[in-house]
């Protein structure tokens, strides 16, 4: 690769290619007034005509040049296709972009913006279905479960980092379990390191006996946690001290995905951002109650963005 070629922008996805700046040679040929490429200006990862991954060359639209076709030739070509004019008009907003609208059999021709809006609306429709399912799940956890609910949250006592920048394992964990009525069922402070280690908070209890008591309480509950990985340090620390740790098999629910589904947010890129962790057991229960009691918002009309 030459130094000049190496300096050209490279995009790993079509989503990263700035709109209205670059086009492929084929796209330039489909413009309303045909253009021919100037010098190569960028590349993007994509697929060839048979679906193989390849690198596609892009050209700047403002550096392209008119083809040799005269106005008469352009008009004759357009006349040969009775649908050519209609196919260049966006079926939603009526725009007539230089670039050919995106053709889709079920939607007709759409400009890139309307195509993107249609995709976002589809994602919002999917999100609405998931939101309703999340509310049903929350109501079942609070009111119809065959086992009492226990909301579990862990706060760790951190010990900073090593000189090399590695995070030290926490010295203790305060494990809070509350019931559906908000009352505390258990709140032990368990030591997760050797009794001789530094940084252990006052009152940290024996990990073996404490874990046994906690396990006995949790075994009778449907346990709601935010994410499994939030308990990794607790599990590792207890095991390092000879204590056993396990959650009741088949009776544990993660709330992170439930809350994300209920919030139902769709970003401008069509992504579904994860819900922010409540940070405490009482706040987790409060959020679960919100999900269970929330009225479903009415669907947004298709033309609401007009």
Folded structure, characterized:
The strands form four sheets. Strands 9, 10, 11, 12, 13 and 14 form a six-stranded mixed sheet that branches. The chain is of the alpha+beta class and 306 residues long. A hairpin with a 4-residue loop joins strand 10 (172-179) and strand 11 (184-186). Mean pLDDT is 87; it is low at 296-306. The protein is elongated. The protein has two domains: 1-80, no CATH class; 132-158 and 168-293, Nucleotidyltransferase, domain 5. It contains eight helices and 14 strands. It has helices at residues 3-6, 25-29, 71-79, 112-144, 207-218, 232-240, 256-263, 281-293, and strands at residues 10-11, 22-23, 35-36, 40-47, 53-60, 65-66, 102-104, 108-110, 149-157, 172-179, 184-186, 189-191, 222-225, 252-254.
Q: Regarding CATH, which class of the largest domain?
A: Alpha Beta
Query: How many domains comprise the coordinates?
Result: 2
Quickly count the helices: 8
Counting helices, strands and paired strands, the structural category is alpha+beta
How many strands, which pairing sense, and closed or not: the largest β-sheet? 6 strands, mixed
Global outline: elongated
What is the number of beta strands? 14
Sequence of secondary-structure elements: HEEHEEEEHEEHEEEEHEHEHH
Q: What's the overall average pLDDT, rounded?
A: 87
């Amino acid at each position: 690769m030459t130094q000049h070629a190496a300096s050209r922008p490279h995009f790993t996805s079509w989503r990263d290619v700035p709109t209205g700046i670059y086009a492929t040679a084929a796209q330039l040929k489909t413009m309303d007034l045909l253009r021919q490429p100037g010098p190569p200006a960028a590349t993007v990862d994509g697929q060839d005509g048979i679906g193989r991954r390849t690198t596609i060359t892009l050209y700047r639209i403002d550096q392209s040049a008119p083809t040799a076709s005269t106005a008469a030739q352009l008009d004759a070509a357009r006349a040969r296709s009775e649908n050519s004019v209609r196919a260049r008009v966006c079926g939603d907003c009526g725009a007539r972009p230089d670039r050919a609208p995106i053709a889709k059999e079920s939607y007709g021709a759409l400009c890139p913006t309307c195509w993107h809006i249609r995709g976002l609306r589809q994602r919002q429709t999917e999100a609405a279905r998931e939101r309703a399912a999340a509310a049903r799940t929350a109501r079942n956890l609070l009111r119809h479960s065959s086992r009492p609910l226990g909301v579990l949250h862990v706060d760790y006592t951190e010990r900073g980092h090593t000189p090399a920048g590695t995070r030290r394992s926490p010295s203790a964990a305060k494990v809070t379990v509350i019931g559906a009525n908000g009352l505390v069922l258990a709140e032990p402070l368990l030591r997760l390191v050797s009794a001789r280690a530094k940084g252990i908070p006052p009152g940290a209890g024996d990990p073996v006996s404490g874990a046994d008591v906690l396990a006995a309480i949790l075994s009778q509950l449907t346990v709601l946690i935010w994410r499994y990985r939030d308990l990794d340090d607790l599990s590792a620390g207890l095991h390092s001290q000879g204590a056993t740790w396990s959650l009741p098999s088949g009776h544990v629910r993660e709330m992170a995905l439930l809350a994300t589904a209920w919030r139902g947010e769709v970003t401008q890129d069509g992504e579904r951002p994860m819900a922010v962790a409540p940070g405490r057991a009482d706040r987790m229960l409060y959020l679960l109650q919100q999900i269970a009691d929330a009225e479903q918002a009415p669907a947004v009309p298709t033309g609401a963005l007009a």
